[in-house]
């Protein structure tokens, strides 16, 4: 049943970040380990408080606990447990605000600098997410599979433990030994260090820019709670925005925070929380007692925000005492759903004996760990305790002013600027300065005829293509080059693959085209002559001839219909070509017509997404919608 227990422990939401801090502890005595770790935790908490004082977390706060060597760790990669050295441990959910995750990385980096010889490992549901920021500078062996348990922070720097085999698995204990034995060998390259440094640049000062203050009209009970613990606004917003039908019943009753007596308060939100609360649609039940002013009133905004916030606190308070009936517990329903997705119930049929045994074991585990798994229960109880013990009266505050929330609306120009800062300056194809249509169509033809590799298409001969950053040279990558040398094939195990021949052969097999190569001519003296009497070949040839004749008939009928129209005059014609042997004939300029109709399609999009921008974007060609696009 070890695997069963592993799954019960490992089920959690996907927005988690897990972190370990390993200080140098030599003793094997558990009591001595706990004493040393407790002293280190006190020092760590002072460092954490220095950076997080008055900081508003979006969901879970950063918190460390003591773990002695008797504690073990469930490795979700292979489902095995590993006995770890004594360490400080924490796991937090960051919700929709990825900024909190990187702030935690910053704190961990500072801890390794201020706590001598300590090593940190941090990962999330995506694995070694630190390497995502440094993806352009990783060694050729690095991949999500080979980097497991190989990425650490030591002395404020990123350390990446190299591997000699793509399948070699490294335990955390082994990794810690390698770093302490030879830190210069495991240290990441300067490019890797700089990429992480750039991501963490500006912390903790820039966190002030992430706060938005808003005036809200809230019940007195909510104002009391926020005066004692302003950080509870995060839990209230999360509860309201993630409400379900059970929560809506609590919002209609408003048992704990009735709307009769309300006061105005200026509340601090993170920008993410404020945006979530603002854009979460909610129409209150009139019977509840919410008297909202008209939507065009200046008071409407603070009223509706206060209503939503009060409902969030009401939901949390209603969850303070979990029901004894597990089946009606919403947390249990979500937990059991996650167990099913992870294959906990194996292949047992629902309500079978094996299924029921696993179900009962899961219920027991859930009841024992409910408070730690669902913090809303303990938060709700904390809210009720504050409302019962807070006796002082609250006075109405005046001259309260909202922060400007124009940042909620991003113009297309601002979005382009943000994307350019993140992914680089995009190339603009100026049609008016490139009047030769052949230049444009050459780009289009070159892109369409360019042979991509397994990593995807990129614009040919464009090293700075905005499609993606420069790729690393991988020694183990399959070669699709025609000119692959036999010596390289022998030494590097590359595959010599001719895409043109393969494509041609595949099309012939699937009968997408009638082959014109002599080698496929059934009447020739080639090696195919032995199949002359094959009835299948004859029938296929007959079918191909029927298709060809039918297509020619369609073309003739279409020409007859077009003779009486003026469609031919709508195409741009070439000048200067000599076609004196054909009377009244001027050839169509294919390049100009292709560019003309692409521009017309782009103009009709009016700057929005459409077929033209979708086709040209991956080629690295971006038209400027502010310029007058014409060919005259």
Automatic annotation (TrEMBL):
Keyword Plastid: no
Region (Disordered): 455-497
Highest taxon, organism lineage: Eukaryota
Cellular component GO terms held in the UniProt record: nucleus
Residues that span the membrane, as ranges: none
Sequence ranges of Basic and acidic residues compositional bias: 476-488
Protein's UniProt name: Uncharacterized protein
Organism: Psylliodes chrysocephalus
Organism lineage: Eukaryota, Metazoa, Ecdysozoa, Arthropoda, Hexapoda
